[in-house]
Write a structure and sequence with these properties.
Helix content: 40-55%
Distance between the termini: 81 Å
Strand content: 15-25%
Number of strands: 22
Radius of gyration: 43 Å
Oligomer: single chain
Largest sheet: 7 strands, mixed
Structural class: alpha/beta
CATH architecture of the largest domain: 2-Layer Sandwich
CATH superfamily of the largest domain: Histidine kinase-like ATPase, C-terminal domain
Shape: elongated
Number of domains: 4
Number of helices: 21
């Protein structure tokens, strides 16, 4: 059963009392409200009955709230009092609290809605204080008293010893000494005379604030100094007492109320700090969750894009292959020659789109090598200057002690080209593009701000422009495929997604910062490596070499398989074909002669290309392997192969590219690659 309270309400305005009674009945059924209409009847009712609290209107026909509070103090009637009034007066508030009022509520706005919460707290605290062992009664409180007059010191000490023995008085006769005492020891409250010779109370309060000392202060002043005492309240004093006949009776409650209010304020500040910390943590958690969700969304789009590009590349292989075969048979003056040329050109453009999709999805096979990023940038600057045009200034700021990285140089060039094209489009009236490199170390704190970042040492590639910038609403989507802010027909929306994919597949990460109207900076972090630079093989390849070796072609797409076999036979090779791994195994078991080369798609149903190659090479150890695919994903690496130890031909490929690659594999010295 929930706790119930009895509350006496002294109010002469029937409209206010009726409205309050109705609100409590509807919203605070745990509080039983009795109403009286005068101060005298209020005091009489409190003598006759026990109430948990008193809700007291400030202006009653016969008495005001101050009169009622004084009468309750004189008769030692212990009841928590909440005063309600239509008047807002700072001095009145101080006097009410000093006389023992629990709280003060102005009759403004929806004040009635606040009353249940306030009176519940007051009444619950009153009940708790009546319980044996409550901290209010067993806890001693140290009060530092700053006073120079012996008579006042003696009078105050004797009164507190008799009426408030829990208040233990320590006396100092100098404000400066008191400041040192507060700084060095624990004090619950400072009680100070307003006018001390060495430092008045106002200056004392200023010093307390300047030194950030956490202690409540009550000021004792003579009559006529009330205005100065109010100034003390504005400087942080919790209360002031005027020296008149009954001031000592007010002193214990003023001290206790000030200490309680100070401690409550400290608790509230702590709660506010904890709440603010929690809100910041929640905001950070929400931000990281959004970034993670965005990364997962991009990853899902990448898987979809990779699958689409793989199938599309199979189709493009057939289109470009047959277009090349037809082109060879047509003369330049043939009416169909231009049509075939257009087909080939369109296929090349489509192949470029699929390469961008594969780069975004991180499913293309890179050919990385250890390189000097600065050297790669210097080699690209001539091309970039032609790309940017005369009205865009290109500047490079390259770290002379730059560490090495491992990346595919062709894909790295593609990153620079895409970022440069975007920068050029953002600066239609000209501007400046700056490419910067430097060594950086990412610590754990910085990495924590970005879910995909890892602490470590990196080479930073920063590309900055002075263009139009990117709107805040667009920033979350810039790396998503097909998202573009350019006009119709001005962009595919794949440029930045391609950059994102290349960077991620190279083991790095990318971050963008932009201010609309001031420009954009893309920062790319690539892991440092300690290995030596990879030498570049300058050997040239013949245009369309021929051969007579036996080649096994395994491809699950029939149109691609037929085209591949047709091209190889035209170039003199003996060709065997199979549509899957099982069929290829049966073919090889029946073939007793050597098979120098296997051409296999990487991803096939039931048995992948690497799995098939491993099984076939037990039957034909001499067999080398050339893999083809619309994409190559991490499954290749999991099967023990990598970019450094395998031959690979990316779809779509032309007949001449196929012929050159086959000859390259067959003529390669040794058997170190499979």
């Amino acid at each position: 059963m929930s706790e119930t309270f009895r509350l006496l309400y002294a109010e002469d305005n029937s409209a206010d009392s009726d409205l309050t009674r109705q609100y409590f009945s509807a919203h605070a059924p745990d509080i039983r409200l009795d109403v009286v209409e005068s101060g005298a009847s209020c005091l009489a009712r409190l003598r006759e009955h026990e109430y948990d609290g008193l809700l007291l209107d400030n202006h009653l026909p016969d008495l005001d709230a101050i009169d009622v509070l004084r009468s309750l103090a004189a008769k030692k009637t212990a009841v928590p009092v909440v005063v309600v009034t239509s008047v807002g007066d700072e001095e009145l508030v101080v006097r009410l609290l000093r006389l023992g009022a629990w709280d003060y509520v102005p009759k403004q706005g929806a004040y009635i809605e606040k009353l249940p919460v306030i009176v519940r707290r007051a009444m619950a605290e009153r009940r708790a204080r009546r319980e044996p062992g409550h901290p209010t009664w067993r806890e001693a409180r140290r009060v530092l008293y700053i006073e120079r007059h012996d008579a006042d010191i003696d009078l105050t000490a004797r009164h507190l010893a008799e009426h408030a023995p829990h208040l233990r008085l320590d006396v100092v006769r100098s404000s400066k000494e008191a400041l040192q005492r507060v700084q060095d020891t624990t004090v619950d409250l400072v009680l100070t005379d307003l006018r001390m010779p060495d430092m008045g109370a106002l200056d004392f309060l200023r010093e307390v604030r300047a030194r950030a000392l956490q202690v409540p202060t009550v000021v004792v002043t003579g009559q006529g100094d009330e205005q100065t005492a109010v100034a003390a309240l504005k400087l942080g004093a919790y209360d002031y007492i005027v020296k008149r006949d009954d001031y000592l009776t007010q002193l214990p409650s003023a001290i206790d109320n000030s200490i309680d209010r100070f401690r409550l304020a400290q608790v509230n500040r702590q709660l506010e700090t904890e709440l603010a910390d929690r809100e910041r943590a929640e905001a950070e958690r929400a931000r990281l969750a959004e970034l993670l969700q965005r990364a997962q969304k991009i990853d899902s789009l990448g898987r979809l894009a990779g699958g689409v590009a793989h199938d599309f590349n199979n189709l493009l292989t057939v289109i470009t292959g047959h277009a090349d075969l037809i082109s060879v048979q047509l003369g330049n003056d043939d009416p169909l020659h231009d049509s075939v040329t257009e087909i080939k050109a369109a296929a090349v453009r489509a192949g470029e789109l699929t390469r961008q999709l594969l780069a975004f999805s991180r499913r293309q096979l890179l050919q990385p090598r250890v390189l000097d990023l600065n050297a790669s940038i210097r080699e690209s600057t001539k091309m970039l200057r032609r790309l940017l045009g005369e009205d865009v200034e290109l500047a490079t700021v390259l770290d002379t002690a730059l560490a090495r990285i491992k990346a595919d140089p062709g894909q790295l060039d593609q990153v620079l080209v895409n970022l440069a094209v975007n920068a050029r489009d953002a600066m239609p009236r000209g501007g400046k593009l700056t490419i910067e490199t430097r060594n950086v170390t990412v610590d754990a704190e910085e990495a924590q701000r970005h879910p995909s970042f890892q602490p470590g040492t990196y080479v930073l590639l920063a590309v900055s422009d002075t263009g139009a910038g990117i709107a805040d609403k667009d920033m979350p989507y810039i790396f998503e495929p097909f998202f573009t802010t350019k006009g119709q027909g001005q962009g595919t929306g794949l440029g930045l997604s391609m950059v994102y994919g290349i960077v991620k597949q190279s083991g790095g990460w990318i971050w963008a910062y932009s201010e609309p109207g001031r420009g954009t900076t893309f920062k790319i972090y690539l892991p440092r490596v300690e290995a030596r630079l990879t030498p570049v093989d300058p050997a040239a390849e013949p245009d369309s070499p021929r051969g007579s070796e036996t080649i096994l072609v395994v491809e699950d797409d029939e149109t691609v398989r037929k085209l591949t076999c047709h091209v190889l036979r035209k170039h003199g090779y003996e060709v065997m074909e199979a549509s899957n791994g099982g069929e290829a195994l049966l073919t090889c078991e029946a073939h007793r002669e050597p098979i120098p080369l296997l051409i296999s798609d990487v991803v096939m149903p039931r048995m992948s290309g690497p799995e098939l190659a491993a099984r076939l090479q037990t039957l034909h150890p001499e067999m080398r392997v050339l893999y083809t695919s619309g994409y190559t994903d991490a499954a290749v690496v999991r099967h023990g192969l990598s970019e450094d130890t395998m031959w690979f031909l990316q779809k779509p490929f032309t007949p001449s590219q196929l012929a050159r690659k086959v000859r390259d594999v067959l003529d390669h010295p040794g058997h170190d690659r499979r």
